[in-house]
Amino acid sequence: MLFKVEMDVNIPLDYDPARLDELKAAEKALSQELQRAGKWRHIWRVAGQYANVSIFDVESNAELHDLLMTLPLFPFMDIRVAPLCRHPSSIHEDDR
Ligand SMILES: O=C(O)CC1=CCC(=O)O1
């Protein structure tokens, strides 16, 4: 199942910079692990914003929920999720 996930990151201005660096490093490591596993298909920075648009490929709504909850930056994120399905004009056979 494919989902568009929009993540806005809002870090408090007085948050400890060293702790923030740790969280960002952990977030990057987990994101890249999930990308290698094929679960996190795409991640794009939204220009001019501390935000991304991502495409996830997971088995269920519950798997997506559990995965998003494990993100180290989850406590600082506003997340919007939209389910995706194949567009009838798509030429990509592997789109589902
Ligand atoms: O910087 C972001 O958009 C938040 C984020 C998600 C995965 C990652 O590595 O950073």
From TrEMBL:
It comes from the Bacteria. Its EC number is 5.3.3.4. GO terms for biological process: beta-ketoadipate pathway. Residues 1-89 form the Muconolactone isomerase domain. Pathway: Aromatic compound metabolism; beta-ketoadipate pathway; 5-oxo-4,5-dihydro-2-furylacetate from catechol: step 3/3. Keywords: Aromatic hydrocarbons catabolism, Isomerase, Plasmid. It is an enzyme of class 5 (isomerase). Pfam families: MIase. SUPFAM superfamilies: Dimeric alpha+beta barrel. Homodecamer. Belongs to the muconolactone Delta-isomerase family. This is Muconolactone Delta-isomerase.
